[in-house]
Each structure stands twice: as C-alpha cells, then as structure tokens.
Amino acid sequence: MSNWSYLRKVVELTGNANRWRKQTLNLIASENVMSPLAEAVYMSDFMYRYAEGKPKKRYYQGTKFIDELEIMLAEKMGELLGTSLVETRPISGTIANAAVFRVLGQPGDKALIAPVQAGSHVSHTKFGTLGALGMVQVYMPYDEERMNVDVDKALKLIESEKPAFIVLGGSVYLFPHPVKELAEVANSHGIKLVYDAAHVLGLIVGKRWPNPLSLGAHAMTASTHKTFPGPQGGIIAFTDNELYKQVSKTIFPYFLSNHHLHRIPATLVTALEMEAYGEQYADQIVRNARKLAESLAELGFDVVGEHLGYTRSHQVLLDVENLGGGDKCAKLLEEANIIVNKNLLPKDPPEKVNDPSGLRLGVQEMTRFGMRESEMLDIAMFIKKVLIDKKEPRVVANEVSEFRKSYTKVMYTFPDDVVSDALRLLE
Hints:
By secondary structure, the chain is α/β, with parallel strands linked by helices. The protein is built from 15 helices and 17 strands. The protein has helices spanning about 5-20, 35-40, 65-80, 95-105, 130, 150-160, 180-190, 200-205, 240-255, 265-300, 325-335, 365-370, 375-385, 395-405, 415-425; strands at about 25, 55, 55-60, 85, 110-115, 135-140, 140-145, 150, 165-170, 190-195, 220-225, 230-240, 300-305, 315-320, 340, 340-345, 360. The mean pLDDT is about 95.
C-alpha cells in the first residue's frame, strides 16, 4: 500500500468512526463527550508541549501560561470537591491510583479492597496496579442482600489483617460504598482510606452522590471523562496534607513525565460547566438510569438490584444469561448501533470474564445529548427488539440512527453566544 493509500485509509477510518458514533446510542458507562468549547481549548498548542514538575517549579521554560491554567484547575476542582488539596497531573484514573498506592504501601503490604461483586476496579487488584506494585489484595466480604461491602465483616478484617490502606469505589457499582463506617475504624488504626471515584466524579460534583472526602476518605482518585464530561485524564483530591505532599512527589517522576497539557484547559472548561450546570446534569443522569432500569424490567428483562431500587448511579446492570450471555448480547446490540459492554455480575465466578452473564449500561453520554426519561423508554424498546424479540439488528440499527438524529447537540454547557465570544479569544 502506498503512503497516499495509507493516508486515505487513516482519514477514512477516522471519519467513519466520527460519523458512526453520531448514529449510535452509546451506553458505555466509562465514556462521555466534551462540549464544543472544551474541545476547542483541547485542540491547542499545549498538545505539543512539556511542563515537567509543578506550576512555578518546572524543569522546562515556556510554561507560564499552562502554569496559570493548572493552578486555576486545582483551585476550581478544590472548590467543587470541598478541599484545597488537588493534584491535576495524573493522565488517567489508574495512574492516580498508582501514585496513591505507591505512597501508602510497600511491596508485600496488604490492601483491603472492595469485592469484585461490589465493583472494585482491576487497578485495585493483583491483576492490575496493586499487583504491579507488589502489594497483596484482600477482598472485603460481600453482602448479597445489600449488593455492597459487608460492613460488619469488613470491620473485623481491618482489625485482623491490619492492611496498609483501604480502597473503596470502583467501576461497576450501583450504590454508594460505606465510606463513613469504614473510615472511622480505619482512622483509629492509623490506616488511610482511598476512594476511587472514577465513575461518579460528576455525580459527586453535581451533589447526587455522597462526597467521600466529607465522609472520611483521605484521598479520592478519579477520571475526568465519565460522569464528569471532560477530556480523558485523572485527578486526585485529598483531605490529608501530608499524603498530598508525598503523592505529588511521586506522580513525577515515578509515573509520568509530561502530563498531557492540552487536557488541562479542557478539564477546566468542563469544571466551569459543571459548576454552572452540574447539579441539573447529575440529577438527570440519576433519573435516567432509574427510568432505564424500570423500563427494561417492565419489558421483561432481568435487571439487577430491583429490591434496592435498581441504581443510584449512572449505571444499570442486566442479567442476560438466559438471552445468550453478555458477550453475544453485546455484539448483537453493537450491530444495532447500541454500544454496551459485557460485564461480570455479582453471581458470576471470575473465570466467566470472557463471557459473563451481564451487560453494563451507562446513561451519562446520552443524557448529555439531551435525553430524558421518555427517551430511556425508547432505548429500552430498542434493546428489547434485539435481545427479546430477536429482530434483525441491522433493521434496528436504522431505527436507532433515525432516532439519534434528534440528539446531536451537547447540553449542560454555556449558551451559544457565550461560547461564540469565548471562541473568538482563540483566534
């Protein structure tokens, strides 16, 4: 293939992806979209630059503008989260976890983590970041009735195992973890508690999910591109000043050199949007998730968590074991322009990871495109047509594409005239 053919292929595939995504219902719980203004400042000269170290203490020259922006971002995120101690440099939630874990533990130390059934992320485990750092995972017991950490048994584990630190939060959980209960006992033993808010940062900022920092967590790691609809990246907020200082010294140079500067102004724009509209956005996310779960249940799906009200987050879990399993169902839905991911359910053993019983759905991106409760019923109907009615996915794909045409504008952002005035400053 000639260079020109390669170039055409690169541009063609990128264009195809852009066009296709506008025709789909993206229900991946770990994704979102930025506003046009955030995208505009993301595509800046900062994409090419380095700024090793902290603002005003760099190892490179030419950083005077990013210094100001980075300080502003830390201050604004601190205001939104109720702390003055914020690290903005991690380039992902996993890197944020790594920096905190590295400070709190040594190789061979134990970390008490949420059970996989209650949503722990792979970075918390021996298979991910924790294992790469040579630390030992100890799962907290699972309370099947509450679909959460078993508090009483976890408190006993803290006493018996004496872990170096505790990790709550994660990637697949419908209900808040018991931060306050565990933090009180952890504090009495001098143990730090870390909360991974990657999925729920936007709900925390929007005051629709408990803020773990106010409940006793010493550090909160997060991604900035899930329910918080910014660019891909990470962040850490602290209530412990000494821990903040130690982690700041660890991020660079242990886990990164350059920290992808172009995401800083885009994250700051998103933070300002969330300050203005975050409560409305988070409220609609939670309403939509509940409505989607209820609608799917009414249409005959086995929706996890019915006895607890299905969900308090942006996520919905479906048990599709009797419909062919998570792998098959996720592929069928993708053919219908509905993007979800297969996922282990609490009942699944770990060895079912490649073909689990469940599907994980997230409503945050479709909510940002203006969908509300009535549209959640429409989405549930599309899913039913594919998985229960066994309608040809390609036929449903056309219906989905037509439906999606009415939802292309990013909402919960500044008015068009304000955005236009702001964009002129980039010229």
